Amino acid sequence: MTPTLPTRSQAVADALAAAGLPGEIRVLPDSARTAAEAAAA
Q1: Of 13, 18, 26, 28, whose CB count within 10 A is highest?
Q2: Triad 30, 13, 16: Cα angle to 5°
Q3: Domain map of the chain by residue range?
């Protein structure tokens, strides 16, 4: 079963797919305030 993305995240995933671009949306368990925090997650 694929987890459901938040509405805005799904919109981004849909836009990527419509443009033919690869991409994976990851929902982090906690907030990440910086790119470094997100990369470490």
Answers
A1: 13
A2: 135
A3: 7-40
